[in-house]
Amino acid sequence: MDRKFNKTNLEKLLSGCLIGHRIHFFDTIDSTNSYAAVLATGGAREGEVVIADCQTAGRGRLRERVWQSPPGRNLYTSIILRPDIPPVFAPGLTLVAGVAVAELLGGYCPVSLKWPNDVLAGGRKISGILTEMRSKGSKVDFVVVGIGINVNMEPGDFREEIRPLSTSLKEQTSKKVSRLELTAGLYCLLENWYRIFIESGFAPVRDRWLECSNIVGKTIEVTDKGVVQRGRCQGIDDEGMLLLVDEKNRTVPVRSGDVTIQKDR
């Protein structure tokens, strides 16, 4: 673990901030998202964060996917939010987080956003986002935003099956990156974009997300539970759904799935 990557030093950098005003820091945990959900169910305040040096059961967006989480290399964190919004608008927070991560990592190397929850560098995954919500009636009770960033992984550190698809900041920049500074920067950017989302709605988030993505106008395939949809990406709607123009020139909203950009024939 980085000598200076600890709770005390993070608290100094985040003094006066909403996100990170209380830090739950672990050397090892099963999943930061799971622990954050327990905290939130027990009444944890908005802006509390869980961070770990290592996860033993880190999760991806799909249940069968595991987020590789070795110690001393990366960033694994989950943030508790309590937005006063209807549950239908909660998926927009995944894109809020995506914009924050893209702006953060863009300060180190060129990156792009892949709908709905990945950040790519050199066409390979460098960060993933897992957003989980609990609601009460017509209101959101809490949202846990989990973020994993490959910081100082070497190519040989990745499991063989994901090595061609994954990368890290160190691989992209040829330099070791301070996890302390990266974490503080992430929380500050996420807080900024969260405030924009709450005060001004999803539109500015959507516009910035599209600026950070290279998907609009591209021919794509979206695979969800074995069903494949193909068409041209028109953008994203007010709820964060992908807009796909199909072969019959119909605009179809897509709520979830894995996106693959198709090469021109």
Give the tags:
265 residues; BirA Bifunctional Protein, domain 2; 30% strand; 2 domains; SH3 type barrels; alpha+beta; 12 strands; 5-stranded antiparallel sheet
* CATH architecture name of the largest domain: 2-Layer Sandwich
Spatial strand order of the main sheet: 1-2-3-7-6-5-4
* SSE succession: HEHEEHEEEEHHHEEEEE
Topology, number of strands: 12
Shape: globular
Number of helices: 6
- What about the largest sheet? 7 strands, mixed
TL;DR of this structure?
The chain is an alpha+beta fold and 265 residues long.
Reconstruct the topology from this structure:
Layout: H1 7-13, E1 23-29, H2 32-41, E2 49-55, E3 75-81, H3 92-105, E4 112-114, E5 118-121, E6 124-136, E7 139-149, H4 169-173, H5 179-200, H6 203-212, E8 219-224, E9 227-236, E10 242-245, E11 251-254, E12 258-261
Parallel strand pairs: 1-2
Antiparallel strand pairs: 2-3, 3-7, 4-5, 5-6, 6-7, 8-9, 8-12, 9-10, 10-11
Helix pairs in contact: 3-5, 3-6
Structural write-up:
The protein has about 260 residues and is of the alpha+beta class. It has two domains: about 5-210, BirA Bifunctional Protein, domain 2 (2-Layer Sandwich), CATH 3.30.930.10; about 220-260, SH3 type barrels (Roll), CATH 2.30.30. Helix content is about 25%, strand content about 30%. The chain contains six helices and twelve strands. It has helices at about 5-15, 30-40, 90-105, 170-175, 180-200, 205-210, and strands spanning about 25-30, 50-55, 75-80, 110-115, 120, 125-135, 140-150, 220-225, 225-235, 240-245, 250-255, 260. The strands form two sheets. It has a seven-stranded mixed beta sheet with strand order 1-2-3-7-6-5-4, sandwiched between helices. A five-stranded antiparallel beta sheet has the order 11-10-9-8-12, with no helix packed on it. Helix 3 crosses helix 6 (about 205-210). It is globular, with a radius of gyration of 18 Å.
